[in-house]
Each structure stands twice: as C-alpha cells, then as structure tokens.
Amino acid sequence: MPHTLIIGYGNPLRGDDGFGWRAAVRLRNLIHDAGIEILAVHQLTPELMEPVSRARRVIFIDAAVGEDPGKMTVAALGTTGGPAPVFTHFATPAALLEGARSLYGARPEALLVTVAGLDFEIGEELSEPVRLVLESLVGTKIRELIAAPPL
C-alpha cells in the first residue's frame, strides 16, 4: 500500500493545461520511494478509484483557469458520504474519492494542488508564471505536502 499517491493530470499539448501531467512526470524522475506512487494521466477516469483506495494520502495536481496566472492553491478534499458518482468521459478528484469510499470503504486524506494558468492554447510549452510554479512544486513544495502531518 503506497503511503502517498500523486496524480498529476492535464493535456501536455494544451499549454498550461499540461501542468499537472508535467509535474507528475518530473516527480517520477526525482522521487524514488516505494511508499510514493506517482501517476501522470491526461484525465481523471473511474479506473483511478482503485489506486486512490490503496493510499493513505492522495495529492491531485492540476491547472485551472484563474485571474492570477501562476498562483498556486492547495485545498483539502473530502467525501460527502453520498452515493458513488456516475461518470461519463471524465471525473473530478472529489468524485474519485467518493467512488473509492463507496466501492472500497477507503477514506484517504486528499489534497488538490492547482495553479492558475495563462495559456491553454495548442502548444507544448508552459507559460512563464506556470513554469516557475512547476519548478517550485517539484523542488520543495511537494516534499512539504508529502511530509506534512495528517490533516
């Protein structure tokens, strides 16, 4: 059972939308700890409920549309105790947590790390403010989140 599961998601071919995916790829090359599982995915899907259910802490990493490009936000997530969500083509972090609770009885601690993006057009490069946040996240911030005491 991994102590921490990190899921970075987004489309690396849509500018800043690839922030989470790129973060996960970078972290896989930097963190070599059997207790930490790192997944880079293009979108959240129901199949991720199973690995979420095996973790004690899950950290989701994504980009978001925002007014302050490069601003990073860390928010705690939880379940509502309601029924498992119905999925179509994508899922949300909260829906995956709810599904893991409903299907597996799991209640991992969860955090959502988002960065406000500037450019979501077709392209493989991150905007400057988002690139700087990526460096900060993979450099120190993610280690602080992994090492933090339970919420």
CATH architecture: 3-Layer(aba) Sandwich
CATH homologous superfamily caption: HybD-like
- Estimate the helix proportion, in percent: 25-40%
Give the CA-based shape: globular
Structural class: alpha/beta
The count of DSSP E runs of length 2 or more, i.e. the number of strands, is 5
CATH domain topology: Rossmann fold
Radius of gyration: 15 Å
Q: In total, how many domains does the architecture comprise? A: 1
CATH class equals Alpha Beta
Query: What fraction of the residues are assigned to beta strands by DSSP?
Result: 15-25%
Instruction: Give me the side-by-side strand order of the main sheet.
Output: 2-1-3-5-4
Q: List segments where confidence is low: pLDDT < 50 over at least 5 consecutive residues.
A: none
Q: How does this model look, in words?
A:
- There is one protein chain.
- With 151 residues, this protein is of the alpha/beta class.
- The chain has one domain: HybD-like (Rossmann fold), CATH 3.40.50.1450.
- The protein has helices spanning 19-30, 49-54, 93-104, 128-147; strands at 4-9, 36-41, 57-65, 72-77, 109-117.
- Strand 1, helix 1 and strand 2 form a beta-alpha-beta unit.
- Helix 1 packs across helix 4.
Q: Could you give a short description of this structure?
A:
This protein is of the alpha/beta class and 151 residues long.
